[in-house]
User: Fold this.
Amino acid sequence: MISSAGGADFILKPTSMGAGAADEGFGVESVATVLGLGQPCHAYRARRCVSQLVVQPLGAALILRPAPQRQPAVLAIGSSTGGPAALLSLFRALGDRVAVPILLTQHMPAPFTPQLAERIARLGGPTCAEAIHGEALRPGHVHLAPGNHHLTVVRREDGVAIALTDDVPENFCRPAVDPMLRSLSVAFPGRVLALMLTGMGQDGLCGAEQVVGDGGSVIAQDEASSVVWGMPGAVARAGLCHAVLPLNELAPKLLQFVARRGT
Assistant:
């Protein structure tokens, strides 16, 4: 996809390995990306980070942070361009071994998030469904942000619950990763483990800064395995990450912190 300023995005064509092997995730990602790029920029705003992050120059050695000091209570995942394929690979590797609730924001329009949830649920790993306003967080379940709604949480007397909002888009997106991370850091200070997967732009950077500032941890997909190293590259170069790893090494790393006991 080409803009007047040059390349805007690209999608990897699936290999043809038989009639049933054309991954329907490719169709979901293709349509979502085209629709996202076609949105008028004036309708959106980007939130500035509270502090001025020191971003490492391209090619510089990444500064990594220590491992989480406290057991994470929730796993938060953000992704965009290239995300559907990365998510399917990740959740296939995680299986049903995650002991904490999983909140997922993938940049994707409303008609296609139900398909993504169904694809993840069919893998035989964690259960997955579009998040419902007011529902309680469920351990080992993936709460997926519905298209056109920010996925956030609120703490109530009986626990933490989902709060979907139609607040203005952030970082050109709704759903956006930043609102999810900010609300989780308030609800679970010091106990959020955030994962940033492949995606264009820097959505999630400000939220990750808050997560780390409150004592939580961030892990990012590396550049070589990312379709676009925008979102994960932003948090990595800002020195916010505990680890920056290839896609196939992310599940084992996450399970070090959020696996069910005895697995």
In short: Residues 67 and 145 are 27 Å apart (CA to CA). The domain at 74-258 is CATH 3.40.50.180 (Rossmann fold). The mean pLDDT is 85.
